[in-house]
Amino acid sequence: MTQSLLHQILDYANRADPYPIYEELRKTPVHHEEDGPYVVGTYYEIRSLLHDPRISSDARNLASTAGDPLAESAQEEETALPPGFLRLDPPEHDRLRRMTNRPFGPPHSPHRVDGMRGELHGIVSGLIDGLGDTGRIDLVEQFSYPFPVTVICRLLGVPRDDEARFHTWADAIAASLDPDPDADPAQGGKASHDARTQLGMYLAGLIEERRKNPGDDILSELATAKGQDGAMTTMELLSTAALLLIAGHETTVNLVTNGMLTLLRNPDVLQRLRSDPRLAVPIVEELLRFEPPVQLVPQRTTLADIEVRGVTIPKGASIWLVLASGNRDPERFEDPDRFDPDRRDIQHLGLGSGIHSCFGAPLARLEAQLALSELARRLENPRLLEDPPTYRQNAVLRGPRHLPIACDGIRP
Amino acid sequence: MNGDGSLERLRREGRIVVVGASLAGLRAAETLRDKGFAGSLTMIGDEPYEPYDRPPLSKQVLLGMAPADSTALPRRRAVDATWRLGVPATGLDMAARRVRLADGDEVPYDRLLIATGVRARPWPREAEAELDGVFVLRTREEGAALARRLADGPKRVFVIGAGFTGSEIASACRERGLSVTVAERGAAPLVGALGGVVGAVAADLQREHGVDLRCGVMVTSLEGDSSGRVRAAHLSDGSTVETDVVVVSLGATRNTEWLAGSGLGAGPRGIACDAGCRAFDIRGIVTDDIYVAGDVARSPHALFGYQFLSLEHWGNAVAQAEIAAHNMISESADRLPHMWVPAFWSSQFGVNIKSVGVPSLGTEIMVPQGTLASRRFIGVYGYQGRVIGAVAFDHARWLPFYQELVETTAPFPPPFPTVDRHPDGQRPMDADFPDPSVPTHGPTVTLSGYSPADRRMTFTPAH
Ligand SMILES: Cc1cc2nc3c(=O)[nH]c(=O)nc-3n(C[C@H](O)[C@H](O)[C@H](O)COP(=O)(O)OP(=O)(O)OC[C@H]3O[C@@H](n4cnc5c(N)ncnc54)[C@H](O)[C@@H]3O)c2cc1C
Ligand code: HEM
Which of A71, A182, A283, A337 is deepest in the core (most CB within 10 A)? Predict the structure, then answer.
């Protein structure tokens, strides 16, 4: 082995199939190279670290980011907006998450997500209707990408007329999370910074407007909340809205694309889904295990020396938890490299665990279930035009950049 | 494998009898079938219903969100059993291996599982307990009757005992907008299970939700009107509370009377069994063919110095039933110990309370995460320099970490900062448990000594 394991994980050449590297990673419970991060890839260790109160999500606790190749881009992201609760520890994290949950989920809003079912279905139908030439469809550009952005717009209550602008900013931010190796990095950085600024200003205006004329969308409720936790400041509201946009977008796009790719590689499962859309539920769970859109969570740090399977991780160290590797750990899952939607025991790590576990999980699941069951039902004889497809650069939010497929027609 | 093939015969055509057809009984039956037991299975239950779930009785059912007859336990698989429901077992002949039923039948067994659970301790003054409007809560019928009465909109509900069940009942009443008075003999609600520090939080929670909470008092008598309806409760501080519904929530009595004289080690504190769920006889000798699981069992636990624990925990009933079922049809070398770490949950006044380990063994407590004032926190209990239990108020996601500290007998106080990093988090204080010889109302873990034949009472009725 010439290249370090860490660099193999990040190496674009391994993007289409990182799993053999993860298998290597699992041979040592805690992988550590020189001044780099401590990388953990086994299921039980990841799980217990996600529940460990000595592990912080707040980058301010890092002793140094020198050796962490993922630390830099993380800082850059935050220049335009303060960190959302994803990067905060309790009690601030808990307070903001609780307040954001009030208009989103049980107990106060048990019907928000399910109430969006009809709307999501409409968006999916519209996108499939508009696929055009069935001889060559780029599922990413034409479907997986626009879908979640539209969903977040509706969730936040962005007026329909503004959705197009929202898509433009989202694209620019996404591009910065996924730099094109041939492009001028300074140029890309500027575009993304501008997009963030414009998005921020747009949202600030929208928040102002919603304070005056509240609707029944999440932003209105957050802007006018006066529960036991008080109200969010405009800055908190802005970063929360931006968090929902980014966390809900860059992930769902990959889940839908990975999902279709996996189904096309497993035509028997695709066929079963076509005849029984209820199968979408276990398929999406197995996808979150088998091809998780968030491969690893990099932004964790230790508040004390802690011991993991005999290795001491010193205070202030940076930790990567490789969720995608834990999901393939044979100690936890039988025959882990097999895509098997009939698994009964499927407590995967694809949506994280512990207090930072995915806030949008019910929405993400519903989006993917609807998208995949409708694609399966409506595309006639779909097939892959490239396998493996071209992947995005990003090793963390991993998924195809394009997914060219063809089909014989679109069913009504 | 037994040289004589008797185990194979048992698995193929043996007779297994389960007494107590509730949570533990059902899960044991399902496990037996799962593990390939092909013989005959008889389920004996004195309640006339198929197995149902009790936790909703003090929650959804009292809120009127679910009817009492809607809590049937979900079945994991078919059990292919003969059900003898509505017939109590009245005796056991250990030598002849027979269970006697109230209808005169006798049911022979090769292996017996006893899962007769507990029942609500009634109000000790019989005439007063009979008054119309006086309730206890353990069964579906009791749940249905109480829910009906609450739906009629009584002027005031009076709850005697602020253990978990009493507190949940008070919470449901407040949620329905009913006036509630709670009388607790201890210094605070939940004090027996969680100590005074956490009990004070529970007290604040109750008062903030409009409960008229009276601690440090005893109910001396209940008074009825001329038509036999309860109308008032009299307290030891001389006060009187007018009320039209009284819920007696004074903990539980083990259902072991039917075993009196059988020679089995059964008494008011339950049935002693070994870590493999085999019952002891009164001489302290373990039996080969009688197993125990669920609320009625008391078993030694390695993590707690092999003291015998009685747990009234849903999760324990399931885990113990599974182990008992496995062991009943296994070679001795293949048997498994029941090593379940106690865990309990309750929801009341909008707060999700969970505990792991045995908080009531603790002498000290600290709050490493969250704050008592916000009512969102983790409390960690220490005993002789180790972590013995933990409780979470709206903080359950962290609990697995603390469970691991209990399982690994980690040092107390835990020597590290947490994500909360608040200055008081590292400071242990007296957990403030009441003197164990003064009973409070229904702790859910009872320590019952070291020896299976030990008959010393540590838990005495309130009156
Ligand atoms: C209102 C309420 C709320 C609860 N909430 C929680 C909670 O939030 N969390 C938690 O962890 N636990 C909770 N519990 C406790 C939990 O329900 C019990 O731990 C569980 O029911 C124990 O199951 P078991 O099968 O051991 O006993 P039981 O459920 O008591 O079943 C024993 C059965 O045996 C029958 N029986 C008794 N004697 C005889 C006889 N001689 N012959 C035939 N049958 C007999 C009984 O009638 C009963 O049907 C709650 C209990 C109640 C009552
Ligand atoms: C397939 C889709 C998705 C996947 C795989 C996914 C995955 C994850 C993961 C692994 C985390 C944990 C990160 C950590 O531990 O640091 C997380 C957190 C989060 N997710 Fe998702 N997510 C998805 C969709 C969504 C959607 C649709 C939304 C918004 C509506 C969303 C909002 C969030 C937020 C706000 C957090 C931060 C939670 C916190 O810190 O408390 N996610 N997600």
Answer: A283
- Report pTM: 0.89
Please write the tens of the pLDDT for every residue from B395-407: 999 999 999 999 9
Interface test with B, best of A61, A86, A92, A94 (most B CBs within 10 A): A94
Specify the DSSP class assigned to residue B423: G
Examine the pLDDT at A74 and tell me if it is beyond 60. no
Give the nearest partner residue to A51 out of B370, B397, B421, using CB atoms: B397
Q: Are B202 and B186 in contact (CB under 8 A)?
A: no
- Give whole-number Cα distances, B72 to B26, B41, B50, B87, in Å: 11, 20, 7, 19
B423 close contact with A: CB closer than 8 A: no
Residue A81 to residue A60: CA distance in whole angstroms = 15
Nearest CA in chain A to B404: A48
* Range B104-108, long-range pairs (CB < 8 A, 24+ positions): B107/B17, B107/B42, B107/B44, B108/B15, B108/B17
DSSP string, B344-393: EEEEETTEEEEEEE-GGG-SEEEEEEEETTTTEEEEEEEETTEEEEEEEE
- Residue among B368, B374, B401 minimizing CB distance to A51: B401
Superfamily of structural domain A5-410: Cytochrome P450 (1.10.630.10)
DSSP state of B273: B
Arithmetic mean of pLDDT, A99-114: 93
Closest chain B residue to A357, measured at CA? B397
Q: Would you list the domain boundaries of chain A? A: 5-410
| Distance from the alpha carbon of residue A358 to the mean position of ligand 2, in angstroms | 4
Q: Which of residues 178-217 of B touch A (CB under 8 A)?
A: none
> Which residue, chain included where needed, has tokens 């036991």?
A228
Q: Residue A258 — φ and ψ, nearest 5°?
A: -55, -35
Q: Residue B272: which pLDDT band, with cuts at 50, 70 and 90?
A: very high
Decide: A298 in ligand 2 pocket, CB within 6 A.
no
Catalogue all structural domains in chain B, each as residue range(s) with its CATH number.
6-54+73-119+253-330 (3.50.50.60), 122-250 (3.50.50.60), 343-432 (3.30.390.30)
- Alpha carbon separation from A373 to A366, A370, B16, B320, B328 (Å, rounded): 11, 5, 47, 42, 46
A59 lines ligand 2 (CB under 6 A): no
**Helix or strand (DSSP H, E) at A286:** helix A280-290
How far is residue B255's CA from residue B116's CA, in Å, rounded to a whole number? 6
CA of A149 to the centre of ligand 2 (A): 15
Rounded (10°) CA dihedral B381, B383, B385, B387: -40
